[in-house]
Amino acid sequence: MTFMPALALIEVSSIARGMVVSDACVKKAPVRLVASTPISPGRYITVFWGEVAEVEESFGTGIETAGETLVDRLFLPGAHAALLAALLRVDKPGNVDSIGIVETFTVASTLLSADAACKAADVSLLELRLASGIGGKAYYIVSGLLHDVEAALDAGRGILAQSQLVRTEVIPRPAPDFADFVW
User: Fold this and answer.
1) Contact 137/130 with Cβ under 8 angstroms?
2) 45-93 tens-digit pLDDT
3) Are 100 and 170 found together in one domain?
4) What is the edge-to-edge ordering of all strands in the sheet holding 70-77?
5) CA atoms within 13 A on the CB side of 41
6) What pLDDT does 179 receive?
């Protein structure tokens, strides 16, 4: 298993303030932005990574800068490296045995759940969709052998409060034509 030092997310209710938050975070410490973008419904997310102390420092500054516009946040030291690869869309899968989908109500809960899923089983993180164009919800897709996908989804569900989870699904042996549309 490969881990990155730390990943952080700050979600705010204002697009304009979100841009200010992103700028403040990267000015505070040497962190790398993964996402600085508007999401549905008219919110803004800042996602960044780096060494634990630097991410924690920038995270604190971002939270303070967000002020009353803060909607959600997540500080994840020791995040699974698959999160960063999926956010950057680095890997494309080959032949996929099974896929599992976890849909949540928030961006932070998706990142937290995806991290737990990737740490719990031998799966690949195929996709992370963070609220853009889907009404503020978010989801991720993992792939692997059926028993690994099921174990990953169990771990991903287990770390969330029931109020954060929309639904989970498993598709054994997805049809190749369908797979082309998923990732």
Assistant:
1) no
2) 999 999 999 999 999 999 999 999 999 999 999 999 888 888 887 666 6
3) yes
4) 32-39, 43-50, 6-12, 70-77
5) 2
6) 66
What is the reported pTM? 0.85
Helix (H) or strand (E) holding 127: strand 124-130
Instruction: Identify whether 147 is part of a domain.
Output: yes
115 contacts: CB under 8 Å, gap ≥ 6: 7, 76, 79, 80, 83
Which tokens sit at 151? 């174990």
Angle, helix 52-66 to helix 15-28, in steps of 10 degrees? 150
CA distance 183 to 50: 27
CATH number, domain with residue 16: 3.30.70.1710
Residue 67: give the domain boundaries.
6-77
